[in-house]
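Example record for the data management plan.
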Amino acid sequence: MTSFYGLSQDFDFHKPLSIPISIGAYFGDLRPNHFHMGIDYRTNGVEGLNLHSISDGYVSRVRTTPYGYGQVVYINHTNGLTSVYAHCSKFSGKLDSVVNVAKLNQQNNEIELYLDSNAVPLKRGEVFALSGNTGSSTGPHLHFEIRETATDTPLNPLLYGLGNKDIYKPTINSIKVYGLSNEGFIIPKKSKTINVTNGKLATGNTIVLPANFSMVYGTIGIGISGNDPHSTGSCGLYENKITSYNDLLYHTKLNRVSFEETRYINTYKDYSGYKSGLKIHKLFKNTTNQFNSTKTNSTGRLKLYPCDSIPLEIETIDAFSNSYKIKFGLSIESGKMDTTQHFFPETRYWIPNKKYEIHLSNCSLLIDTLSLYEPTKMNLLDKGQNISFGDVNQAIHKPIIISYSKWKSSKYSDKNYFIGYLNGSHYDYCETYIDNNLLKTKALKFGTYKLILDTIKPKITPLNYTNFGFSSKSKILVWTIADNESKLFKYDVYINNEWIPADFEYKTKKLKCTIEKAIQEIYCILIIVSDVCGNENIIETSFP
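Corresponding structural encoding:
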């Protein structure tokens, strides 16, 4: 039996798309706060291509939402795997009927259904949906995943024969050397970056570090940036190794990533470097890193002294076993060791393995143990309703709980209040809840937060009809709907007093619904839009 790229089983999968395979992103590519959990198939810049079931199975789950994966389908197969198809523009056949019936029964445009094996069975190659650009997609494509059905863990689809055979080697573009604490935390302003061109260091065969990289209470770590070219583009790195004297110091391999551990990307990569546009894979780990794709028990951290010199070899390998190696020496100049004992004084830094409860004038912060990846500057600023804390160039692993104590007013409903995060000049809505009379949110970003009162109803603008009639004979009605304060919650369309399914695209702020009636049969259109703070706007249009 033939295996796919090292697998012991032959998976004879049908391609998800009928066009030639062109891949825009690989499994494991570095993204904000998560690994890319699948592969992105290009669709030639268009929507509406047939999506095929890769094998016999049944639709086990389907969801419609304006955010995230948009319209997404999950298919369970008989081999213990689940395939996922995200950003669909439309469902087809029996699946389309099942979704529409559910929307009508629930009178809700955003639904999630879990189906048994008899609801929508599929054969290998059968079409069940069309490709699209719904949800958080930035352009037409198919985001495709393979998951282990029993655990819902995403697996690398390239290992199942779902990509083009690749003959190109990955490359390393730069090497970065870090000064680290004994715990593996990155010491500010103690690093050196060396460019790599055609397999050669810009510094020759050796990286020479100042004597202060030798630390009594510290270590050294290595990181690399690079890319993996293939026949239709270039993606991120898959497997990385670093050795010295033939001893394996560190090894990572992105075969599978669970949703529970995907945020560990913020310590797998150089997070502050990523914020500035660099994608650096760290070849070492600190004490907060519990990511399971590390294949060695060692930490990858090096202990060197003045005048020390060691040979290093870095190898990066793609999913098709194409390999790229670079060998170089790492040396420390003569001089005095750095004797600093506390690189992160606790008067100015929060430390990852400690718990903090901070009480401010109108709110409190709860930072649990291991909420942080790295020691983080406090940067506390208390202005009552507005607070700022932490370092925007550092990430948060477990949410920091913000609790406002003074927020209620007898003049307004409790629902009218929310906590916002400053994003540029606008405050983004944060999921807000009430607990023991405290207004709370779970913060996953450092920065500025504010207690906000929202009494403004959402805006609704019809685009192809007015009180005087319809501007075209189109069977699709279109509105723009927006909420500039908090966040849209629900949107309902009634035609002739009958609830009609509608689709909202938050990127364009357009709400669309397809009408089955003839234009001349419509005598009333009612649209109701509400936000998460309970504000509601209703527009009713009657036609003669």
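Summary line stored alongside the record: Confidence is low (pLDDT under 50) at residues 1-8.
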